Amino acid sequence: MELTAGLVCDRGLNPKRPVNQDSYLLLPEYGLFGVFDGVGGQRAGEVASQTAAETIQETVTHSTLPSAQDLIRSALQFANRDIVELAESEPSYKTMATTAALLFVRNGDAVVAHVGDSRVYRIRDGRAIRETIDHTENGDLVRSGAMTARQADDSADNHMINRALGAGPTVEAEIKAIRLNGGERLLLCTDGIYRHLEDDEIAKIVSNNAEPQAAADELKQVVCERGAEDNLTALVIQVGETVRTAASSKRRSRAVDTMPANKRIQVDITRAESRDSAGGGDEVRPRKRIWLYILGALVLISGSFYAGLRASDLAARKKLSAEDAANPIKPARRLLEQGQALAAEAALKRVVENDPKNSEGFYWMGRAQLQQGQFEAAARSFEASINLKADFPDAYAQAAAAYSADGKRDKAELMLRRYSDAVQKRLPSPTQ
Predict the structure, then answer these.
(1) What are the DSSP E strand ranges found in 240-378?
(2) Does residue 364 share a domain with residue 224?
(3) CATH assignment of the domain containing 124
(4) CA-based Rg of the chain, rounded to a whole angstrom?
(5) Alpha helix locations (H) across 68-208?
(6) What is the rounded distance in angstroms from the CA atom of residue 185 to the CA atom of residue 120?
(7) How many domains does the chain have?
(8) In this structure, are 236 and 363 located in the same domain?
């Protein structure tokens, strides 16, 4: 499956944000794309987003886990761990965290994963379809029915996230499989893009440009015309072939020349090789022999290195298998992520029957029931989870959604108040 992408990553125009705290991943050869929006202070936010990008890249490019969803889940957990450990080692990084929005395509399977309020859109038939939800206080209120989308947009706290990489020792990422269709596009973006654009405007810009890079450039142009109050990053991904004209190719070349660096070193060896081979015949032979010796040494070193990585990956796979056996919730969650809510509910019922004090089991059973529209049963499961573990903010939010959908607004409002109290006790308040 051919994937091409256009990118913009910019500080924006706000003088109060002199540092670009956004980072990105653009690795079409691995089918990996991502955007990250750092929070927690100027320097700290930049460190958090870059740490997440580097850890996820390292995990994906060196792991042999067969499941794309398992691989992305592991990568996000490793990124969360690295950010937390780094924050503990340096006082100035104490409150840092980052959002993440990822697209991973491998062997025809596509996975969308996210934490925080960076988004993934699918652009199809001139419409922008959100593949993610915003992990924000107001987002939870809107989903529970306690606030309208318009009220959320007008709220001063609209961009206050309640889930992020680095905000706690573990992170709950949203991960799901999607089906990609040839000819469509996806947009990964931080809130610096969509806070200035309506969804229909995003769809029009991404659809109307022949080149993904041209679409990304226009997104940035419009955002800057409207103030660009925050750092902004947009990745426009084309699935399959796209029509390329001479004009659009020329425009893309100019854009690439001014594109911000991905904070990684890239070396072009083709020019050096050309210079070496351009000399006289007597000089070329010794140089070729030297390069062959160096190449041989590099092959031996890299062979040992990747053999070690493979051994580490095999050990990691064995560890994950052991963890799955020890924690039967994991395979049930995979069923739920694959859309098999009924099978997931049945598996989770067995879990809580065998372990009636398993708060997490009741929580995920509630999620499976909520997905099937069993609102009353879902509310009971979330209540059971909360009774076993009071410090569980997500359970309060999901219970509020279940009660609201069941028409019990008073109970929904009570759960939202308890949710707010739990969040304030558990997490710092990262501001963007």
Answers:
(1) none
(2) no
(3) 3.60.40.10
(4) 24
(5) 68-89, 137-144, 149-154, 191-194, 199-208
(6) 11
(7) 3
(8) no
In the prediction, which pLDDT does 62 show? 92
pTM: 0.59
Instruction: Kindly give, in sequence order, each residue whose CB lies less than 8 Å from that of residue 40, ignoring residues fewer than 6 positions away.
Output: 48, 93, 94, 95, 96, 97, 166, 428, 430
317 in a structural domain: no
Residue 14 lies in a domain: yes
Domain that holds residue 297: 268-305
For 229-244, give one letter per residue: b (16+ CB within 10 A) or e. bbbbbbbbbbbeeeee
Angle between helix 375-388 and 359-371 (nearest 10)? 160
Residue 217 shares a structural domain with residue 166: yes
Place of tokens 């091409």: 4
- In this structure, are strands 119-124 and 185-189 parallel, antiparallel, or unpaired? antiparallel
For 271, the enclosing helix (H) or strand (E) is helix 270-277
pLDDT of residue 291: 45
Residue 38 has pLDDT above 60, yes or no: yes
Residues 157 and 246 in one domain: yes
Q: Which two tokens stand for residue 332?
A: 């049930």
Q: How many CB atoms lie within 10 A of CB 345?
A: 24
Q: By three-state DSSP, how is residue 180 classified?
A: coil
Q: How many residues does the chain have?
A: 432
